[in-house]
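User:
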Amino acid sequence: MPMIVDLSAPQITPPAVITSPEGWLTAVVDTKWAGVYLSVDYLAGPAPLPGAGQVMKVRITRQDPGAAAPVPVRSGDPAWAVEGAGPAYDHEAPLGVAVVYTATPLYADGRWGPSTSLGLVVPAPKPAETRDLWLKSLDEPGLSMRVMLGSPEGTTSDGRQDTATRSGSPYTAVAYDTAAAPSEQVSVDVLADQIEQFRDLIRSGVLLAQVRPGYQTPDRFFVPDQVAEKPTGKLGSTGGYTVTFTITPIERPDTAGQPMYVPGWSYDDLAVMFATYDAVAAAFTSYAALSTNGAIG
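Assistant: Predicted structure:
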């Protein structure tokens, strides 16, 4: 059956706030930092969760396309949800594809409650945008930034082999294991007014590299190696820097018990903005609003 497509039709705009069918789990996409604010409130919705006041923690997982099983959200493995309410933040969701978040409450007596889920998409850089590589810091997410990715250099993957000469045979005995994850030397362009932040970012520990799905390059956790930079013009008149470094993928760092980190929002920022706790209470109507800087009310 043919499909008629009206190219002049307006594109569907995703809702700014996504809520699970029960109303217990809420998510807001943080387009500035390519992350997701998450919040549970088991007293919300048309039918509050039975025994919501006895909920102490909540475990939040994310199901990625093609993944064999969901993975825990770094700040939700588990997150505190005292009396049934608590926040989390996911800065690691793949870009440009649909993912599903699932929250499961943990009661004070150790019982797990019913799960609730919602789906969303974190937008990827558009093809027309030059800054197409996200580099995200796990420990200092406020340093994360988008940069322009240079021409691909290709990847290399070292084999893991031990060889031994076989007596009386022209052939060599080989013991082998899974090949090493493909590594790649990457070149990026950084604007001159962002180079100091980039230097802090590249030295901040474990990073996550993400590009749009069309590049067919998986998300990679890594610690930058062999970092080199040079100005793109004569010193004093440069418009930026070209920085090269090596990405050697590592396993995703453990998520269990990790605190909630939100880019550009911390208790230090709160102390600068407000002089007293009364001023904070007047500005934020709930703990969810406070912990998400007002993204979720």
